[in-house]
Design brief:
The structure is a homodimer. Chain A is an alpha+beta fold and about 325 residues long. The first copy, chain A, has nine helices and 14 strands. Chain A has helices spanning about 1-10, 20-25, 30-40, 65-70, 90-100, 145-165, 225-230, 235-255, 260-265; strands at about 45-50, 55-60, 80-85, 105-115, 130-140, 170-175, 175-180, 185-195, 200-210, 275-280, 285-290, 295-300, 305-310, 315. The first copy, chain A, has a seven-stranded mixed β-sheet, sandwiched between helices. A five-stranded antiparallel β-sheet of chain A has the order 13-12-11-10-14, with no helix packed on it. The interface of A and B includes residues 193, 194, 195 and 197 of A.
Chain lengths: ~325, ~325
């Protein structure tokens, strides 16, 4: 009910009378009053003027499902949003839902995670209300070996969204760290559940340090606020990420991976650079010369040989 | 306790007195007697001779954990076995355990599955006590794109075990159907849980129609009994499969996939044959000329072009 009241208030530029709300939503005046108070409790500033009715003065910058869904206009991604103030990890929650058959596109967002995780079992620091933490369930008709490329797609979507919303020159470090001025502001994690040749579902987790103060972040990390000197709307950015993910996911379905790879190349900070790449076995140094069609990084070593790597940690030099 | 009693009885060729069991296992004579009765209830025939003691006359051919573990002598696979008479699916049970951190090598075996599944969401028929139905949890240091080859490894292990135990010319149809005289007697299913570049765990499910009458099987399927004309010990075969899986998994860790690929080629019914391959998009006809290093099937079409396929259903002609 509270969702419907807020949607009605948001859909009007001016005041909406209690009488009008009561009629449109088929609820009593008392129920309207109760919802208004609940919304105020959630952080909405709602003015009540005699005879005119109610008007939203300001909304809290929280990742509420009705805020994320509001005028999102996507085909798949974000059509349904689950919100929790605190969650162990949006990945775990998304996995639980996906195993039970949740449709693709569903998003799980949270203000903070008590056990936020990154790649390789690392921790993802999730200070409350400062960053964006969400996971998206997808059910692409892909094989497990295609998932590295889906992760590139997520990097492209987030990088574009940050450029758009924060007007900053975000770049992608291979495979999918989004950097601002060379420092990591975004973590992207893809996990999947698959048969040997068919993905059943995958979950893309995205963590963005938006307004997070440096002292709440690990070393070498940064936030949008730190790099741009101003606060950014988390809702605005989260919606833009969902829209870009939706667009690129649609392109993937229609045209496959080539456009994703091409776009990734134009956003990359890695290509053309001297890099050191560490993987489980060994270390490699050379110039990152290209991204191949499978998302592998092509590195030209000193001896002139070009080798391809599908995974590892890159240090750009 | 019952496990310990049966192990003690199995470790002796002749009789074991109640007194001896009581002393070795530090239990009362009454507890020995209770265990003997429980074992009889499970299907063990145990002779009791005055003054001599107890002796196993015969064991039921059930996939009890103590039977599968008994003298298995593997490094990893089957070091721990969970047994259930009836389970929805050994895959589901294995996933549950793996998510909670169960070690690699653990096996979940059942006499029947109420929701046994095959690839692509198909059903796997699991008549009670007739076949072998189990899943193995593995935690290989592989990327998701390597899993197709792990599935080939399972095919090799099962094919070798059947040849050994049933003295029949089992062959592998690409990628991992084990055939006897051209008919499918085994289903192998690999499911995984992974990050984009790292498998967290995978579960290999194996279903073998051992003594199953044809009328209990779907069309085109067969059983070992049907093709060899005799009954086979399910425990004996299941143990042999676990041992071969263990050996090949060890080879994989030490030497990578090349020996697996080579062995697969020698066991294959597909290579050298005219085949029709159907995948989600289209159909392809030609001669299966080779298996590449990634487990892809190389098919030479009429025009002479060789194309590679990583997945699909093969019809051998």
């Amino acid at each position: 009910m509270t969702n419907e009241v807020i949607n009605l208030l948001k859909s009007c530029d001016g005041y909406v009378s209690g009488e009008e709300m009561s009629q449109k939503l088929h609820i009593s005046r008392a129920a309207v009053w109760k919802s208004i108070n609940e919304l105020r409790g959630l952080g909405y500033k709602i003015e009540a003027a005699p005879r005119l009715g109610y008007r939203i003065v300001s909304s809290p910058d929280k990742l509420f499902s009705h805020e994320l869904e509001h005028r999102l206009n996507t085909k798949v991604v974000g059509r349904k949003v689950f919100y929790e103030e605190t969650v162990s990890s949006t990945m775990d929650k998304a996995f639980e839902l996906a195993v039970k058959g949740e449709k693709e596109g569903t998003v799980i967002a949270a203000e903070t995670q008590t056990k936020g995780r990154g790649r390789m079992g690392r921790v993802w620091t999730s200070p409350k209300g400062q960053g964006i933490y969400f996971s998206v369930i997808l059910r692409p008709a892909l094989s497990p070996s295609d998932i590295a490329r889906l992760t590139l797609l997520a990097g492209v979507a987030v990088c574009e969204a940050i450029r758009q919303v924060a007007a900053v020159d975000a770049k992608i470090k291979w495979p999918n760290d989004v950097l601002i001025k060379g420092k990591k502001a975004v973590g992207i994690l893809t996990e999947l559940n698959a048969e040997s040749d068919r993905v059943r579902f995958c979950v893309i987790g995205i963590g963005i340090n938006v307004n997070t103060p440096l002292r709440q972040l690990p070393e070498n990390a940064t936030s949008l606020k730190q790099e741009t000197g101003k606060m950014h709307s988390r809702i605005g950015l989260a919606q833009e990420v969902l829209r870009r993910l939706d667009v690129w996911y649609d392109i993937l379905k229609m045209q496959g991976f080539p456009p994703v790879i091409e776009r990734w190349k134009t956003l990359s900070s890695t290509l053309g650079r001297l890099v050191r790449l560490k993987d489980q076995q060994n270390e490699l140094e050379g110039k990152a010369v290209d991204l191949d069609e499978y998302g592998g990084l092509m590195i030209q070593t000193k001896s002139g040989v070009v080798v391809k790597r599908m995974s590892g940690d890159v240090i750009e030099q």
